[in-house]
Amino acid sequence: MRQRFFWLMLVLVLPWLVACGAGTPTGSVPTTDASGGESAATDDGVDRTRLSRELYFYNWSDYINPEILTQFEEEYGVRVIVDIFDSNEDLIAKIRAGNSGYDLIAPSDYAVQIIALDDLAAPLDQTLLPNMQYLDPGLLNKYFDPGNVISVPYMYGLTGIAYNRTFFPEGITSWSVLFDPAQLPAFRGRFSMLDDERETPGAVLKYLGASINTTDPAILQQVETILIDQKPFLASYNSSDVNRRLASEEFILAHTWSGAAMQARTGLGDEFSGNANIAFVIPDEGGAIWMDNLVILRESPNAYTAHVFINFLLRPDVAATNADYVGYLTPNEAAIPLLSQEVRDLYAAGFAPDEAMLERLEWIERDEDTVVFTELWTRVKGQ
Ligand code: SPD
Where in the cell is it found (predicted)? Predict the structure, then answer.
Protein backbone atom coordinates (compact mmCIF):
# COMPACT_ATOMS: atom_id res chain seq x y z
CA MET A 1 0.00 0.00 0.00
CA ARG A 2 2.79 2.41 0.99
CA GLN A 3 4.62 1.52 -2.24
CA ARG A 4 1.50 2.23 -4.35
CA PHE A 5 1.16 5.64 -2.67
CA PHE A 6 4.81 6.46 -3.48
CA TRP A 7 4.39 5.66 -7.20
CA LEU A 8 1.11 7.60 -7.38
CA MET A 9 2.80 10.68 -5.92
CA LEU A 10 5.73 10.29 -8.28
CA VAL A 11 3.45 10.15 -11.34
CA LEU A 12 1.54 13.23 -10.18
CA VAL A 13 4.50 15.36 -9.08
CA LEU A 14 7.19 14.48 -11.63
CA PRO A 15 5.68 16.34 -14.62
CA TRP A 16 5.28 19.43 -12.44
CA LEU A 17 8.92 19.26 -11.31
CA VAL A 18 10.14 18.83 -14.88
CA ALA A 19 8.03 21.75 -16.14
CA CYS A 20 9.33 24.04 -13.40
CA GLY A 21 12.93 23.15 -14.11
CA ALA A 22 12.79 23.52 -17.90
CA GLY A 23 15.08 26.19 -19.33
CA THR A 24 16.78 27.04 -16.05
CA PRO A 25 20.46 26.23 -15.95
CA THR A 26 20.91 25.98 -12.20
CA GLY A 27 19.47 27.05 -8.90
CA SER A 28 15.98 27.58 -7.66
CA VAL A 29 13.01 28.43 -9.81
CA PRO A 30 11.40 31.79 -9.02
CA THR A 31 7.83 31.59 -7.81
CA THR A 32 6.91 34.69 -9.81
CA ASP A 33 8.53 36.58 -12.67
CA ALA A 34 9.79 40.18 -12.93
CA SER A 35 6.34 41.45 -13.83
CA GLY A 36 5.04 39.95 -10.58
CA GLY A 37 6.53 40.19 -7.13
CA GLU A 38 9.18 38.01 -5.58
CA SER A 39 12.28 37.33 -7.65
CA ALA A 40 15.75 35.93 -7.24
CA ALA A 41 17.48 38.98 -8.73
CA THR A 42 21.13 39.57 -7.80
CA ASP A 43 22.96 42.91 -7.38
CA ASP A 44 22.90 43.58 -11.11
CA GLY A 45 19.13 43.16 -11.12
CA VAL A 46 19.30 39.96 -13.16
CA ASP A 47 17.36 36.96 -11.94
CA ARG A 48 19.69 34.20 -13.07
CA THR A 49 17.14 31.50 -12.33
CA ARG A 50 15.05 32.84 -15.21
CA LEU A 51 17.81 32.71 -17.82
CA SER A 52 17.70 30.16 -20.61
CA ARG A 53 20.84 28.20 -21.41
CA GLU A 54 20.91 29.43 -25.02
CA LEU A 55 19.75 32.43 -26.99
CA TYR A 56 19.34 32.42 -30.77
CA PHE A 57 20.32 35.69 -32.43
CA TYR A 58 19.67 36.27 -36.16
CA ASN A 59 22.10 39.00 -37.20
CA TRP A 60 23.89 40.51 -40.20
CA SER A 61 27.28 39.06 -41.15
CA ASP A 62 30.43 40.33 -39.39
CA TYR A 63 28.25 42.35 -37.05
CA ILE A 64 29.19 41.34 -33.52
CA ASN A 65 32.50 40.97 -31.72
CA PRO A 66 32.87 37.28 -30.76
CA GLU A 67 34.68 38.33 -27.57
CA ILE A 68 31.55 39.89 -26.13
CA LEU A 69 29.62 36.68 -26.73
CA THR A 70 32.25 34.86 -24.68
CA GLN A 71 32.01 37.54 -22.00
CA PHE A 72 28.22 37.23 -21.87
CA GLU A 73 28.47 33.46 -21.50
CA GLU A 74 31.05 33.83 -18.72
CA GLU A 75 28.94 36.36 -16.83
CA TYR A 76 25.51 34.83 -17.29
CA GLY A 77 26.02 31.21 -18.36
CA VAL A 78 24.04 31.80 -21.57
CA ARG A 79 25.44 30.72 -24.92
CA VAL A 80 24.40 33.03 -27.76
CA ILE A 81 24.13 31.26 -31.10
CA VAL A 82 24.41 33.65 -34.03
CA ASP A 83 23.07 32.88 -37.50
CA ILE A 84 23.39 35.38 -40.32
CA PHE A 85 21.31 37.01 -43.03
CA ASP A 86 22.34 39.66 -45.53
CA SER A 87 19.17 41.54 -46.34
CA ASN A 88 16.10 42.75 -44.51
CA GLU A 89 13.95 40.90 -47.02
CA ASP A 90 15.61 37.56 -46.25
CA LEU A 91 15.15 38.22 -42.54
CA ILE A 92 11.48 39.11 -42.95
CA ALA A 93 10.76 36.08 -45.14
CA LYS A 94 12.32 33.82 -42.52
CA ILE A 95 10.39 35.16 -39.55
CA ARG A 96 7.10 35.53 -41.44
CA ALA A 97 7.16 31.78 -42.05
CA GLY A 98 6.99 31.26 -38.27
CA ASN A 99 8.86 28.85 -35.99
CA SER A 100 12.14 30.45 -36.99
CA GLY A 101 13.77 29.32 -33.75
CA TYR A 102 15.23 32.81 -33.23
CA ASP A 103 14.77 34.89 -30.11
CA LEU A 104 16.39 38.10 -31.23
CA ILE A 105 16.81 39.77 -34.64
CA ALA A 106 18.49 42.92 -36.00
CA PRO A 107 16.25 44.55 -38.62
CA SER A 108 16.92 47.96 -40.12
CA ASP A 109 14.61 50.96 -39.68
CA TYR A 110 12.07 50.35 -42.49
CA ALA A 111 12.09 46.61 -41.73
CA VAL A 112 11.07 47.39 -38.13
CA GLN A 113 8.02 49.11 -39.66
CA ILE A 114 7.16 45.93 -41.58
CA ILE A 115 7.73 43.68 -38.55
CA ALA A 116 5.48 45.91 -36.42
CA LEU A 117 2.71 45.83 -39.04
CA ASP A 118 2.96 42.04 -39.19
CA ASP A 119 2.84 41.88 -35.38
CA LEU A 120 5.93 39.66 -35.26
CA ALA A 121 7.70 41.43 -32.37
CA ALA A 122 7.33 41.16 -28.61
CA PRO A 123 6.73 44.43 -26.76
CA LEU A 124 9.86 45.48 -24.86
CA ASP A 125 9.89 45.74 -21.08
CA GLN A 126 12.00 48.88 -20.71
CA THR A 127 12.27 48.33 -16.94
CA LEU A 128 14.62 45.47 -17.87
CA LEU A 129 16.71 47.78 -20.07
CA PRO A 130 18.12 50.45 -17.72
CA ASN A 131 21.18 50.83 -19.97
CA MET A 132 18.99 52.50 -22.59
CA GLN A 133 19.91 55.63 -20.63
CA TYR A 134 23.27 55.58 -22.46
CA LEU A 135 21.73 55.86 -25.92
CA ASP A 136 21.82 59.06 -27.94
CA PRO A 137 18.29 60.54 -27.52
CA GLY A 138 18.46 61.70 -31.13
CA LEU A 139 18.49 58.06 -32.22
CA LEU A 140 15.53 57.01 -30.07
CA ASN A 141 11.87 57.42 -30.87
CA LYS A 142 12.48 57.36 -34.63
CA TYR A 143 9.77 57.27 -37.30
CA PHE A 144 9.89 53.47 -37.56
CA ASP A 145 9.13 52.79 -33.88
CA PRO A 146 7.81 55.79 -31.93
CA GLY A 147 8.45 55.24 -28.24
CA ASN A 148 10.79 52.30 -28.94
CA VAL A 149 7.98 49.92 -28.17
CA ILE A 150 9.63 46.97 -29.94
CA SER A 151 13.13 48.06 -30.94
CA VAL A 152 16.40 49.24 -29.39
CA PRO A 153 19.14 50.83 -31.52
CA TYR A 154 22.07 48.46 -32.14
CA MET A 155 24.36 50.11 -34.73
CA TYR A 156 23.87 52.71 -37.40
CA GLY A 157 25.79 53.60 -40.51
CA LEU A 158 25.92 55.06 -43.99
CA THR A 159 25.69 53.72 -47.50
CA GLY A 160 28.12 55.13 -50.03
CA ILE A 161 31.15 54.07 -52.06
CA ALA A 162 34.27 52.29 -50.81
CA TYR A 163 37.25 52.52 -53.12
CA ASN A 164 40.93 51.78 -53.33
CA ARG A 165 42.92 55.01 -53.42
CA THR A 166 45.69 53.43 -55.50
CA PHE A 167 43.24 53.16 -58.39
CA PHE A 168 41.42 56.44 -57.71
CA PRO A 169 44.16 58.84 -56.57
CA GLU A 170 41.91 61.84 -57.24
CA GLY A 171 39.18 60.42 -54.99
CA ILE A 172 35.52 59.93 -55.96
CA THR A 173 32.79 62.54 -55.69
CA SER A 174 29.89 61.17 -57.76
CA TRP A 175 27.80 58.04 -58.17
CA SER A 176 28.57 58.39 -61.90
CA VAL A 177 31.64 56.21 -61.32
CA LEU A 178 29.20 53.32 -60.84
CA PHE A 179 26.40 54.28 -63.23
CA ASP A 180 27.84 56.25 -66.16
CA PRO A 181 28.22 53.75 -69.06
CA ALA A 182 31.26 55.68 -70.31
CA GLN A 183 33.17 55.08 -67.06
CA LEU A 184 32.26 51.44 -66.38
CA PRO A 185 34.50 49.58 -68.91
CA ALA A 186 37.62 50.67 -66.96
CA PHE A 187 36.47 48.71 -63.88
CA ARG A 188 34.79 45.73 -65.53
CA GLY A 189 34.62 42.84 -63.06
CA ARG A 190 36.34 44.80 -60.29
CA PHE A 191 33.34 46.30 -58.50
CA SER A 192 30.19 45.23 -56.67
CA MET A 193 26.83 46.65 -55.69
CA LEU A 194 24.85 45.74 -52.58
CA ASP A 195 22.47 42.82 -53.07
CA ASP A 196 19.60 44.84 -51.68
CA GLU A 197 16.22 45.79 -53.10
CA ARG A 198 16.08 49.18 -51.39
CA GLU A 199 19.75 50.19 -51.17
CA THR A 200 20.74 49.52 -54.78
CA PRO A 201 17.84 51.26 -56.54
CA GLY A 202 18.28 53.89 -53.78
CA ALA A 203 21.84 54.65 -54.92
CA VAL A 204 20.61 55.19 -58.50
CA LEU A 205 17.82 57.44 -57.21
CA LYS A 206 20.43 59.57 -55.47
CA TYR A 207 22.49 59.68 -58.70
CA LEU A 208 19.38 60.95 -60.50
CA GLY A 209 18.78 63.61 -57.84
CA ALA A 210 15.59 61.95 -56.56
CA SER A 211 14.47 60.88 -53.10
CA ILE A 212 15.54 57.40 -52.06
CA ASN A 213 11.86 56.75 -51.26
CA THR A 214 10.30 57.93 -54.51
CA THR A 215 7.96 55.49 -56.21
CA ASP A 216 7.38 57.65 -59.29
CA PRO A 217 7.04 55.13 -62.15
CA ALA A 218 8.90 57.26 -64.71
CA ILE A 219 11.88 57.70 -62.40
CA LEU A 220 11.90 54.05 -61.40
CA GLN A 221 11.93 53.09 -65.09
CA GLN A 222 15.16 55.07 -65.47
CA VAL A 223 16.57 53.36 -62.36
CA GLU A 224 15.79 49.95 -63.81
CA THR A 225 17.43 50.77 -67.14
CA ILE A 226 20.58 52.06 -65.43
CA LEU A 227 20.90 48.94 -63.27
CA ILE A 228 20.33 46.59 -66.21
CA ASP A 229 22.92 48.46 -68.31
CA GLN A 230 25.40 48.22 -65.44
CA LYS A 231 25.11 44.45 -65.02
CA PRO A 232 27.57 43.32 -67.73
CA PHE A 233 30.35 45.25 -65.97
CA LEU A 234 29.52 44.21 -62.42
CA ALA A 235 31.52 41.52 -60.57
CA SER A 236 28.52 40.70 -58.36
CA TYR A 237 25.76 41.93 -56.13
CA ASN A 238 27.41 41.45 -52.77
CA SER A 239 26.28 42.28 -49.23
CA SER A 240 28.18 39.53 -47.45
CA ASP A 241 31.93 39.56 -48.05
CA VAL A 242 32.60 42.78 -49.91
CA ASN A 243 34.81 43.76 -46.93
CA ARG A 244 37.17 40.83 -47.64
CA ARG A 245 37.16 41.37 -51.42
CA LEU A 246 38.02 45.06 -51.06
CA ALA A 247 40.79 44.26 -48.60
CA SER A 248 42.31 41.69 -50.97
CA GLU A 249 41.98 44.12 -53.94
CA GLU A 250 39.81 41.69 -55.88
CA PHE A 251 37.40 44.65 -55.88
CA ILE A 252 38.68 48.20 -56.26
CA LEU A 253 35.30 49.85 -55.90
CA ALA A 254 32.03 48.95 -54.17
CA HIS A 255 28.63 50.31 -53.29
CA THR A 256 28.60 49.37 -49.64
CA TRP A 257 28.03 50.20 -45.98
CA SER A 258 30.42 52.39 -43.99
CA GLY A 259 31.30 49.59 -41.56
CA ALA A 260 32.08 47.10 -44.32
CA ALA A 261 34.42 49.73 -45.76
CA MET A 262 35.94 50.30 -42.32
CA GLN A 263 36.52 46.53 -41.94
CA ALA A 264 38.21 46.46 -45.37
CA ARG A 265 40.45 49.29 -44.15
CA THR A 266 41.33 48.00 -40.67
CA GLY A 267 40.77 44.25 -41.00
CA LEU A 268 38.40 42.23 -38.86
CA GLY A 269 39.81 40.51 -35.77
CA ASP A 270 41.30 37.14 -36.69
CA GLU A 271 39.17 36.99 -39.84
CA PHE A 272 41.25 38.99 -42.33
CA SER A 273 43.82 41.81 -42.52
CA GLY A 274 42.98 45.33 -43.56
CA ASN A 275 44.13 47.40 -46.54
CA ALA A 276 45.34 50.92 -45.76
CA ASN A 277 44.33 52.14 -49.24
CA ILE A 278 40.59 51.78 -48.67
CA ALA A 279 38.57 54.98 -48.39
CA PHE A 280 34.84 55.64 -48.08
CA VAL A 281 32.79 58.49 -49.51
CA ILE A 282 29.23 59.73 -49.60
CA PRO A 283 29.01 61.17 -53.13
CA ASP A 284 27.95 64.78 -53.64
CA GLU A 285 24.48 63.63 -54.78
CA GLY A 286 23.93 62.01 -51.35
CA GLY A 287 23.51 58.55 -49.86
CA ALA A 288 21.62 56.60 -47.22
CA ILE A 289 21.72 56.67 -43.43
CA TRP A 290 20.18 53.75 -41.58
CA MET A 291 20.01 52.07 -38.21
CA ASP A 292 19.82 48.41 -37.28
CA ASN A 293 17.85 47.56 -34.15
CA LEU A 294 17.42 44.75 -31.65
CA VAL A 295 13.95 43.25 -31.70
CA ILE A 296 12.68 40.28 -29.65
CA LEU A 297 10.39 37.97 -31.58
CA ARG A 298 6.88 37.44 -30.28
CA GLU A 299 7.43 33.70 -30.71
CA SER A 300 10.56 33.70 -28.52
CA PRO A 301 10.29 31.53 -25.40
CA ASN A 302 13.35 33.34 -23.98
CA ALA A 303 12.21 36.96 -23.88
CA TYR A 304 13.65 37.55 -20.40
CA THR A 305 17.09 36.30 -21.47
CA ALA A 306 16.87 38.41 -24.63
CA HIS A 307 16.24 41.52 -22.51
CA VAL A 308 19.27 40.68 -20.34
CA PHE A 309 21.42 40.27 -23.46
CA ILE A 310 20.20 43.57 -24.95
CA ASN A 311 20.92 45.36 -21.67
CA PHE A 312 24.41 43.80 -21.67
CA LEU A 313 25.03 45.05 -25.25
CA LEU A 314 24.02 48.52 -24.07
CA ARG A 315 26.72 48.64 -21.38
CA PRO A 316 29.10 51.40 -22.56
CA ASP A 317 32.22 49.20 -22.25
CA VAL A 318 30.56 46.35 -24.16
CA ALA A 319 29.12 48.70 -26.81
CA ALA A 320 32.59 50.23 -27.35
CA THR A 321 34.29 46.81 -27.66
CA ASN A 322 31.63 45.83 -30.17
CA ALA A 323 31.78 49.04 -32.24
CA ASP A 324 35.60 48.99 -32.29
CA TYR A 325 35.40 45.53 -33.84
CA VAL A 326 32.59 46.00 -36.38
CA GLY A 327 33.49 49.54 -37.43
CA TYR A 328 29.91 50.77 -37.64
CA LEU A 329 28.60 53.68 -35.56
CA THR A 330 27.44 53.08 -32.04
CA PRO A 331 24.24 54.84 -30.92
CA ASN A 332 25.62 54.55 -27.37
CA GLU A 333 26.80 58.05 -26.41
CA ALA A 334 28.61 56.84 -23.31
CA ALA A 335 30.61 54.36 -25.42
CA ILE A 336 32.07 56.95 -27.79
CA PRO A 337 34.88 58.18 -25.46
CA LEU A 338 35.84 54.52 -24.93
CA LEU A 339 36.41 53.80 -28.64
CA SER A 340 39.95 53.22 -29.89
CA GLN A 341 41.82 56.20 -31.31
CA GLU A 342 42.14 54.38 -34.67
CA VAL A 343 38.38 54.06 -35.05
CA ARG A 344 37.73 57.63 -33.96
CA ASP A 345 40.32 58.91 -36.47
CA LEU A 346 38.62 56.95 -39.26
CA TYR A 347 35.22 58.29 -38.23
CA ALA A 348 36.72 61.76 -38.69
CA ALA A 349 38.13 60.73 -42.08
CA GLY A 350 34.68 60.14 -43.60
CA PHE A 351 33.52 56.83 -42.11
CA ALA A 352 31.09 58.79 -39.91
CA PRO A 353 29.01 61.80 -40.93
CA ASP A 354 29.84 65.40 -40.14
CA GLU A 355 27.18 68.14 -40.28
CA ALA A 356 27.63 68.75 -44.01
CA MET A 357 27.43 65.05 -44.85
CA LEU A 358 24.31 64.58 -42.71
CA GLU A 359 22.46 66.97 -44.98
CA ARG A 360 23.10 64.67 -47.96
CA LEU A 361 21.80 61.55 -46.24
CA GLU A 362 18.30 60.11 -46.36
CA TRP A 363 16.53 57.35 -44.38
CA ILE A 364 14.79 54.53 -46.23
CA GLU A 365 11.09 54.30 -45.34
CA ARG A 366 8.33 51.83 -45.97
CA ASP A 367 4.82 52.72 -47.13
CA GLU A 368 2.04 50.97 -49.04
CA ASP A 369 3.68 51.85 -52.40
CA THR A 370 7.24 50.70 -51.68
CA VAL A 371 6.39 47.15 -52.79
CA VAL A 372 7.34 48.45 -56.25
CA PHE A 373 11.00 48.10 -55.19
CA THR A 374 10.53 44.35 -54.75
CA GLU A 375 9.11 44.12 -58.26
CA LEU A 376 11.84 46.30 -59.77
CA TRP A 377 14.56 44.31 -58.04
CA THR A 378 13.10 40.97 -59.17
CA ARG A 379 13.19 42.21 -62.77
CA VAL A 380 16.76 43.53 -62.48
CA LYS A 381 18.08 40.36 -60.87
CA GLY A 382 16.23 38.23 -63.42
CA GLN A 383 17.83 39.94 -66.43
N1 SPD B 1 27.67 43.47 -42.19
C2 SPD B 1 26.68 44.15 -41.41
C3 SPD B 1 25.82 44.96 -42.29
C4 SPD B 1 24.74 45.67 -41.58
C5 SPD B 1 24.05 46.50 -42.54
N6 SPD B 1 22.77 46.79 -42.20
C7 SPD B 1 22.33 47.91 -42.91
C8 SPD B 1 21.17 47.76 -43.74
C9 SPD B 1 20.76 49.08 -44.29
N10 SPD B 1 19.69 49.01 -45.20
Answer: Periplasm
- Percent of the chain having pLDDT more than 90? 89
Binding residues for spermidine: 110, 196-199
Distance between CA atoms of residues 120 and 112, nearest Å? 10
- Structure confidence at residue 80 (pLDDT): 98
pTM of the complete model: 0.89
Q: Confidence class of residue 1 from pLDDT cuts 50, 70 and 90?
A: very low
Residues 165 and 282 in one domain: yes
CA of 28 to the centre of ligand 1 (A): 41
Indicate whether 109 and 196 sit together in one domain.
no
pLDDT computed for residue 31 by the predictor: 29
Q: Please check whether residue 296 lies inside any domain of the structure.
A: yes
Which pLDDT does position 38 carry in this prediction?
58
Residue 147 has pLDDT above 50, yes or no: yes
Whole-number Å distance between alpha carbons of 102 and 94: 10
User: 191, 252 in Cβ contact below 8 A?
Assistant: yes
Q: Does any domain span residue 150?
A: yes
Report which ligand 1 atom has the smallest distance to the Cα of 63. 2
Tell me: the pLDDT tens digits for 242-251? 999 999 999 9
> Which residues line ligand 1 at a C-beta cut-off of 6 Å?
60-63, 108, 199, 257, 260, 290, 292
Cβ pair 223, 204 in contact under 8 A? yes
> How many angstroms separate the alpha carbon of residue 338 from the centre of ligand 1?
23
Q: What is the residue with the minimal CA distance to atom 4 of ligand 1?
A: 60
Q: Extract the annotated binding site.
A: 110, 196-199
Give yes or no: residues 78 and 147 share one domain: yes
Same domain? 114 vs 58: yes
HEC states along 144-201? CCCCCCCCEEEEEEEEEEEEECCCCCCCCCCCHHHHCCCCHHHHCCCEEECCCCCHHH
- In this prediction, residues 278-286 reach a mean pLDDT of 98
Domain of residue 367, residue span: 157-289+353-382
Using the mean position of ligand 1's atoms as its centre, give its distance from the Cα of residue 58 in Å: 13
**Among protein residues, the one whose CA lies closest to atom 1 of ligand 1:** 61
For residue 201, what pLDDT band results from cuts at 50, 70 and 90?
very high
Q: Is residue 327 part of a domain?
A: yes
Task: Tally the domains of the chain.
Answer: 2
In CATH, what number is assigned to the domain containing residue 250? 3.40.190.10
